[in-house]
Amino acid sequence: MNSVEISVEGVGTPPWLERARSFAQAALASLGKDGWDLSLLFCDDSFIRGLNKQYRERDEATDVLSFEQGARYSGPGGEERFLAGDIVISLDSLARNSEEFGVDRDEELRRLIVHGILHLSGMDHGEEPDDPMLALQEKTLRDLAA
Q: Is the pLDDT of residue 126 over 80?
């Protein structure tokens, strides 16, 4: 069983947080992840810009950042757990992306969650359209939409 913790920083509490948690758990299961612990942090552009500058030396807002922990540990019942890490999503950037790409905000939210999970899985991507990580991202979104 996977665990997804959610928090917000610099934004009001969105009414869809539980749906985001459920989707993240479904995405983890679809990707074959079990025993994962991760957190989702929803914020504004100002907050994510600070993180991007501090950790990536890029003084700009971005839509999603992933901070991989990658630590295995024993849970309270002795089960093996995997502390995957943290996914930070800017709701300001999410809104701009949805307009730019012509998708609704829910779809863009799902895309950013899957994108973050794939980064926590150790994947990285380039800019080419047939990039394996981005292809898996889109396949996962299609699978979960069915």
A: no
